[in-house]
């Protein structure tokens, strides 16, 4: 079953602009694992639920070919509009029906997307398409572990963020809850005995107040809220921005703070 999110072009544009690019720390963990298990050459990486291609482009220097796959045509259009990556191609499709021959893929990866996959269908395709010693790498971050910092008011900023997330909680799907469990059920279901999980990979970035609001707008449960109550959803973002600016003692929404994300990563190797 494919969950269709960010189908409209506006939603895909928001995703392209405000979603975080996967950090080098996670990329290096994945490449190191692939090197240890399979070794060179790295021919084909398939980025599932690729969205607008942030993770696909990160992988491009390390593989002969990268294929990004997403169910949303709008997301794929946004990804294709980014120039300069001649070895990356994008296709509309799902993680449960991959257009690759048996034993042909070096790496199957998904950045903040695997919780939307049908578990049984995805794992069946992973077993079929991965080369011997090919690897799965699934990663993301959890909403609960996000922190905001600016001067001495970090605790207040985190409280404001948590209050906003609480307001959205009626619209959080079971699939998002799976992501926030760090894909525990999916990890247990992976049929490869050679697998591991890394649950705490902290990453800090600078982010403006306006981009914090844009980041919130990319959440699937914010989009669900906006669809149900558009005026209330817009008001929630305005109120959140006002509270953040007040807490920081600044007036410009372009003022930057620190955001701390805690990533997790699930790694598995097809042993045969």
Describe this structure in words.
This protein is of the alpha/beta class and 272 residues long. Helices cover 42% and strands 25% of the residues. It is built from 11 helices and 8 strands. It has helices spanning 9-18, 24-37, 54-59, 73-80, 119-129, 154-168, 174-180, 184-189, 209-217, 220-228, 230-248, and strands at 44-48, 65-70, 88-92, 105-111, 130-141, 147-149, 194-208, 256-269. Strands 1, 2, 3, 4, 5, 6, 7 and 8 form an 8-stranded mixed sheet that branches. Helix 5 (119-129) links the parallel strand 4 (105-111) and strand 5. It is elongated, with a radius of gyration of 19 Å.
Protein structure class? alpha/beta
Q: Quick one: overall form?
A: elongated
The first-to-last residue Cα distance is: 27 Å
Q: Main β-sheet, in a few words? A: 8 strands, mixed
Q: Element order, helices and strands?
A: HHEHEHEEHEEHHHEHHHE
The residue ranges in which pLDDT falls below 50 over 5 or more consecutive positions are: 1-5
Separate helix tally: 11
């Amino acid at each position: 079953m494919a969950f269709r999110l960010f189908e409209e072009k506006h939603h895909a544009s928001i995703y392209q602009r405000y979603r975080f690019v996967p950090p080098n720390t996670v990329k290096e963990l994945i490449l190191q694992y692939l090197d240890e298990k399979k070794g060179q050459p790295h021919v084909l990486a398939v980025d599932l639920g690729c969205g607008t291609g942030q993770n696909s482009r990160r992988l491009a220097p390390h593989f002969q070919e990268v294929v990004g796959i997403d169910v949303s045509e709008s997301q794929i259009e946004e990804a294709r509009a980014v120039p300069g990556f001649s070895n990356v191609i994008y296709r509309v499709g799902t993680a449960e029906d991959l257009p690759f021959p048996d034993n042909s893929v070096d790496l199957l990866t998904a950045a903040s997307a695997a919780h939307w996959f049908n578990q049984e269908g995805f794992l069946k395709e992973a077993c079929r398409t991965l080369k011997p010693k090919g690897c799965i790498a699934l990663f993301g971050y959890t909403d609960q572990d996000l922190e905001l910092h600016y001067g001495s008011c970090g605790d207040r900023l985190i409280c404001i963020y948590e209050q906003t997330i609480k307001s959205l909680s009626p619209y959080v799907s079971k699939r998002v809850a799976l992501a926030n469990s760090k894909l525990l059920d999916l990890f247990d279901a992976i049929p490869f005995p050679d697998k591991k999980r890394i649950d705490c990979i902290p990453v800090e970035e600078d982010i403006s107040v306006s981009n914090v609001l844009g980041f919130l707008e990319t959440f699937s449960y914010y989009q669900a809220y906006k669809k149900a109550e558009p005026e209330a959803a817009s008001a929630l973002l305005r109120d959140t921005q006002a509270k953040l600016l007040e807490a920081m003692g600044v007036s410009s929404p372009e003022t930057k703070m620190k955001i701390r994300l805690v990533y997790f990563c699930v790694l598995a190797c097809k042993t045969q």
